[in-house]
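Hello forum,

I keep getting stuck at the same step: I have a sequence, I want structure tokens, and every attempt I make locally crashes halfway through. Rather than fight my setup again tonight, could one of you with a working pipeline run this one for me? It's a single chain of 112 residues.
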Amino acid sequence: MFRLMVISALLQGPAVLLQLATAFLALRLIRLTGCKISWLAISGALCVMALRRFYGLWRLMWDGAKPIIFDDAAALAISFLMLVGVATIKPLLVASRRSEDKLRQTGKDLKE
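Reply #2:
Ran it on my machine without issues. Output:
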């Protein structure tokens, strides 16, 4: 049982950190996209998920809750995928914005 608790803690701890890092990155995308409500909602959901995972970790350590390794492993995998998704969307958004700016500039040049 102790071994399962350690494995569960090793899975839940990084999941919390990944979720909080993803929430921070989502907030940084507000300035780039201008979609304040969307990124605030995503960031808020990630913070709630991290809080829930932290509570599970606390219960595991102090209340002796039964560890569910599959749930913890899935949470870590999902957290990693969310971080990768939010981190890799920024270059796409920047490229899109540059393309729009070039199109606007080309349109202005053609009108003149």
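The chain has three helices and no strands. If your local run keeps crashing, start a new thread with the error log.
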